[in-house]
């Protein structure tokens, strides 16, 4: 029995040698063994808690490890690029050269304070609160050609943009507005025509509070003495003489931290037809807009 069995294995091996061009572990592993026939199972005949045999025995392609991104890395990529984009505050850029062009063409009056309402009234700046636009980001593009002396309020500004405004003797502040205030500022005519009162500006959220209390950013919640010091430091850094701003009254105008419009306080009603302003007199309303 032993001799016949050995001869049978030798014949199988020789037959294998005749049929294959080369020998390897992949084509000699079944030599001398009867192949196992597994029952084929369709998608409806196996237990859903366990995969079928043919799926479990299937091997992935070589190099599949490099085509699969780990879950931790995938979450990191999503958070870095587009994760939570619809919930983030957006600030469309406004270049200094565009601001100078608005002034040169008469769309903006530099002798009056410039804020989000006056910028949107030019109809040359695209601000859409539906896209979570929360204000203006003043950039330093065209800073060497900016010559206007302005009192401007924006939501974000680069250091070079701040230096360009203050080099000409102007004043700049960065201020936060909640979405309701931005809607009112972006289209005051539509806001007051609906009979809505002047909204109350809310305090910035925790992730933006640090920016608006920093005097380097000219934040509207920063201490005035700290801002004066930082104005001098910035002038020394960029090598220009800091002009005086006491002689021009419009440069000294500023808003209260709860105020949205210049000259209008929260809770006031503006009648556009009769050109009248109605102020609340009840203590409950006054307390609501003061707190």
| Number of distinct beta strands | 7
Kindly state the mean pLDDT as a whole number? 82
Largest sheet: 3 strands, parallel
With helices defined by DSSP (H or I, 4 residues minimum), what is the helix count? 12
**Overall tally of domains:** 2
What Rg is obtained from the alpha carbons, in whole angstroms? 36 Å
Name the quaternary structure: single chain
Q: Ranges with pLDDT <50 over ≥5 residues?
A: none
Structural class: mainly alpha
Widest sheet: strand order? 1-2-4
Summarize it.
36% of the residues lie in helices and 8% in strands. With 291 residues, it is mainly alpha-helical.
Describe the structure.
The protein has 291 residues and is mainly alpha-helical. The chain has 2 domains: 1-32; 91-290, no CATH class. The protein is built from 12 helices and 7 strands. The chain has helices at residues 2-19, 25-28, 53-56, 71-80, 96-104, 116-121, 159-167, 179-186, 188-193, 206-212, 224-238, 283-290; strands spanning 93-95, 137-139, 151-154, 156-157, 171-174, 269-271, 276-278. Strand 6 and strand 7 (276-278) form a beta hairpin. The longest helix has 18 residues, at 2-19. The radius of gyration is 36 Å and the shape is elongated. The N and C termini lie far apart (103 Å).
């Amino acid at each position: 029995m032993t001799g016949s069995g050995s001869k049978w294995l030798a014949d199988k091996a020789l037959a294998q040698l005749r049929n294959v061009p080369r020998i390897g572990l992949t084509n000699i592993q079944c030599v001398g063994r009867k192949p196992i026939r597994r029952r084929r199972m369709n998608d409806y005949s196996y237990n859903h808690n366990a995969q079928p045999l043919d799926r479990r025995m299937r091997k992935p392609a070589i190099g599949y490890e490099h085509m699969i991104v780990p879950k931790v890395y995938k979450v990191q990529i999503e958070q870095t690029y587009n994760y939570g984009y619809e919930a983030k505050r957006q600030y469309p850029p406004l270049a200094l050269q565009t601001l100078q062009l608005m002034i040169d063409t008469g769309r903006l009056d530099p002798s009056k304070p410039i804020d989000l309402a006056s910028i949107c009234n030019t109809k040359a700046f695209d601000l859409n609160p539906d896209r979570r636009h929360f204000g203006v980001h003043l950039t330093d593009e065209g800073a060497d050609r900016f010559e206007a002396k302005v009192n401007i309020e924006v939501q974000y500004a680069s250091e070079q943009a701040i230096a360009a405004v203050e080099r000409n003797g102007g004043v700049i502040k960065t201020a936060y507005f909640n979405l309701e205030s931005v809607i009112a500022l972006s289209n005051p005519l539509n806001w007051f025509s609906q009979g809505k009162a002047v909204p109350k500006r809310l305090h910035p959220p925790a992730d933006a509070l640090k920016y608006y209390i920093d005097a380097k950013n000219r934040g509207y919640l920063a201490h005035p003495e700290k801002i004066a010091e930082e104005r001098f430091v910035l002038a020394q850094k960029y090598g220009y003489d800091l002009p005086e701003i006491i002689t021009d009254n419009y440069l000294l105008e500023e808003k209260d931290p709860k105020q949205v419009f210049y000259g209008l306080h929260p809770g006031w009603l503006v009648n556009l037809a009769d050109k009248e302003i109605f102020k609340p007199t009840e203590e409950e309303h006054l307390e609501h807009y003061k707190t």
